[in-house]
Design a protein that fits this description.
26% of the residues lie in helices and 27% in strands. By secondary structure, it is of the alpha+beta class.
Length: 305
């Protein structure tokens, strides 16, 4: 459950949490054309709070708007400032930030006409996305019966709300079967991503991840690629199959919510030794040092409140 806080930023101002409401005829509620972001704020070792890669998240938010043909009524700076303002208003030292843009009420039918584009920013406390112990022990994944979107069916580079029906169905299926996450294949049968995360595998000291074909260009994904290169670990962006995943020595998911979550099992097959491997654990350690302000090499990734 999302813990209720004091304020939500909506259409340019902070309002009480319980007043952040929309009409049942909100166009996006019916047809799904809205965009969103997921951003994390961390409590650093010096006691300050910092938002991780805020600029990149806001850039992607506006890219999603462009792809989705939504004209946002605020600038990048206004949205970035509002993210930090909402955190401060709710007294959150660490938490999750959800910018959301959607088409409001007015015309109905598929074409939204001149309905207004509305923007909200919500913050809340959020721990380990894939469950207690997931970061330390790893999770179990199941290949979904649902295929990831083809690039000309949905716009896969945008965080469009309606795209995520595909993710919701896959996730519900995996959870019902007793797994923690759904692994999704692309329309050619190659490994694409999870319901809300990008995927990496490790074998013989080389990291491999799905190229930017059918997948969302994850900001944590990009961070891990940069980190691995700085650590002199070879990284390849290349298509791979399920059986290559099965025989990997290590595997992990990345995402703002999931951070770096090890995968210990896929389709009832243990990955490597069936527990988080050394490369995954080393990347986790470096990543968490960065987000907590302990690594000055990547200080530009932190935007302090």
């Amino acid at each position: 459950m999302v813990q209720k806080l004091e304020k939500i930023w909506m259409d340019g101002k902070l309002i009480p949490w319980d007043e952040a409401k929309v009409h049942v005829l909100t166009h996006t509620l019916h047809y799904g054309l809205g965009i969103f972001e997921g951003i994390r704020c961390y409590l650093c070792e010096d006691g300050r709070s910092a938002v991780f890669r805020l600029r990149e998240h806001i850039d992607r938010f506006f890219d999603s708007a462009l792809i989705g043909t939504l004209s946002l009524p605020f600038s990048k700076k206004e949205i970035a400032d509002a993210c930090k303002e909402t955190l401060r208003a709710n007294g959150l030292k660490a938490g999750y930030i959800r910018p959301l843009a959607f088409i409001g009420e007015g015309a109905m039918g598929v074409y939204p006409g001149d309905n207004p584009v509305r923007v909200a920013i919500i913050t809340w406390s959020w721990g380990a996305y894939l469950g207690e112990g997931a970061l330390e022990k790893g999770i179990r994944a199941k290949t979904s019966s649902f295929t990831r979107h083809h690039v000309n069916v949905m716009m896969t580079k945008a965080k469009i709300a309606g795209n995520y029906v595909n993710s919701v169905l896959a996730k519900k299926e995996a959870m019902k079967l007793g797994y923690d996450e759904a692994l999704m294949l692309d329309t050619e049968g190659y490994v694409s991503e999870a319901s809300g995360e990008n995927i990496f595998i490790v074998k013989h000291g080389v990291i491999k991840t799905t190229p930017l074909t059918s997948i969302l260009p994850g900001i944590t994904r990009d961070s891990v690629i940069q980190l691995a290169k700085s650590m002199k670990i070879p990284v390849v962006e290349e298509k791979f199959t399920r059986d290559e995943l099965y025989t990997a020595h290590e595997a992990f998911f990345t995402g703002t919510a999931a951070e770096i979550t090890p995968i210990r099992e896929v389709d009832d097959r243990p990955i490597g030794e069936g527990k988080p491997g050394p490369v995954t654990k080393e990347l986790q350690a470096v990543f968490f040092d960065i987000v907590r302000g302990k690594n000055p090499e990547f200080k530009e990734w932190l935007d302090y409140l």
